[in-house]
Amino acid sequence: MNVNKKNQIDPLGIYVHIPFCLKKCAYCDFSSFSCQSEDNIRDYFEALHKEIRNFARENQNSDLPMVDTVYFGGGTPSSVDAGQIEATLALLKEVFVIQDTAEITIEINPGTLTADKARRYKKAGINRASVGLQAWQDFLLKILGRIHNQADFIRTMEILKNNGFENFSVDVMVGLPGQKLVDVMETLEALMVFSPTHLSSYSLILEPGTPMANWVEAGQLDLPDEDEEREMHWAVDGFLKQQGFEHYEISSYCRPGCESRHNVKYWELEPYLGFGLGAHGFFQGRRYGNTNELRQYGERLNAGKSPAVFEPVMAPDEMMSEWMFLGLRKLSGIRDADFITRFGESFFVRYGEVIKSLIADGLLAWDGSVLKLTDRGQDFGNRVFMAFV
Ligand code: SF4
To answer: At the top level of CATH, which class does the domain 12-267 belong to?
Structure first.
């Protein structure tokens, strides 16, 4: 079943979705399910492995690029038996050529990692962890409906360190109900003790239909106002830069050279495959997305059908538009020379008026070769991105 393995110029990323969590958080509308039986989880992995094998069969005559990033996301990949992760990674290695230097990440939620799992992940080749802390304070973790507390997080950090995981990211959130600037700063200061190589800082987004959105709507919880939320964002930014982190994408900070190589592919419109429930991919110029329905996902694969809906091959203008608004998420900005190399014309030919007006509004800056977000542009990122759609 090996597909033709050949190294090509653009290596490929692989995202694998593990849609299980021990409990649903109050703000979550991701593709994730709690309280699943062992049978359901086993069936899911069987379907997932079928999807990977089907891909291999359908592409057996193609020259597939080598893989340089693998990302197990969720859900909570660390909540399932380590044997399922090992088997999935072993299958990926059987089907693809995964570079020796590949970045292989797993998302971990505190309270689900054991020393045995960490040891097995490491042995299987996983070399990066992304840990969902969100906040240091137990009262905030409770409001969020997280399963863990501060002590669980500390234990997770110890397990990772004891098992040789030096490269790890931590997720934190700002704009939480009841959260004050002082809580955000306490979270960051506490985190520095563990020496993460990467931090992602997200603003809470209230997703309609989630318990948290309902509580806020019913007046049972108060969110910080927009100014307070922005103050938190800029405090995070200032603190992390002072600690030597680089702000390389709207929500992402890293020690020099420790960007998430996998996520950078999304912002640079590089190819990646997505396997698993609700996973998305961008391959051979086409985007595709798998069904979000757990039952349908298994049924389609069991019936020998694809769980994906494929979009048509992306038209050049669509590709240009995505390249602009995804690329502008990077704080280093986008180079006109790269646009010319990729699309054969300057981005000013295509978007001159849009760019001029965003520069006039103080949202973008142009230095003669690079176009990038200003500080004000970060505060109004969506306005900038939508201008290129
Ligand atoms: S751990 Fe993450 S994916 Fe799971 S329910 Fe909470 S927010 Fe959602």
So the answer is: alpha beta
